[in-house]
Automatic annotation (TrEMBL):
Native source species: Paractinoplanes ferrugineus
The name this protein goes by in its record: Guanylate cyclase domain-containing protein
Homology family: Belongs to the adenylyl cyclase class-3 family.
GO terms, molecular function: adenylate cyclase activity
PANTHER family registered for this protein in UniProt: ADENYLATE CYCLASE, TERMINAL-DIFFERENTIATION SPECIFIC (PTHR43081:SF1), ADENYLATE CYCLASE, TERMINAL-DIFFERENTIATION SPECIFIC-RELATED (PTHR43081)
Single GO BP term: intracellular signal transduction
Amino acid sequence: MTAIAMAEQERRQTVTVLFIDIVGFTSLVDELDCAVVRALQRDYFSTVSEVVRAGGGVIEKYVGDAVMAVFGTGAGGFGAEAAASAVRVGLSVQEALRGQLLAGRFAVRTRVGLATGDVIVDVEAARDFGHGMISGSVVSTAARLQAYAPHDTVVVCAATQAVTDRLIAYQELPPVRVAGKPYPLDLWRALQPQRVPVGAGQLCGVGAE
C-alpha cells in the first residue's frame, strides 16, 4: 500500500476511550445457565450501546462484560465537547443500569474508566464494532483505570479532566499505580455535568493552541 493510500485510510487524532464493566461479573454468572447469562448480557449491552450512541460515541467491542467505546473519531476532529460527552455517557449508563433488573432479576453495579490521548484511527473501521479502529496506549490506560475505579463511579485520567473541567464537576482521587506504567496516574472521579456561563468563550481541545 502506498504512503498516500495509507494516509487516506488512517489518521492521527485525539480521542477519548471509555471502558465499562460489571462489578463481580465472574462470580455472578458462575452458577447461572448459559441462557440466563446471555439474557443478562443482552439487556446490559443494549442499555450501554443505546446511551453510547445517543452521546455520539462508537462501540468498538464487547468482551465478556466489558464494553469499549470511542468518542471523537469523526472527521470534524476532537474537542472538549467530545470528551465531555464520553464522561456524561459514563454517568448516564450507570444511572440507567441502577434502575434496571437485567434478565428481569439482576441488579448490577458497574465501574467506568476514561482516558484521552492520541491514536491512529482506521477510517474504514471507525464505526460500531469496527474492531481495531484505533491504536494507541490510551486504550490500555482507559481499561486500567476502569479496573481501579471504585464501584458505581466514573473515573478519568488527568488529560480528560483537564479538557472537560469547565463542563464536568470532579473530585480528585489519590493517584494509582497501574501495571505497566512507570509512574502513578492521577485520577479524578466525575460527579455531574455543570453549566458553562453564557459568554464564557470557546473551549479548547487537547493539544489546541
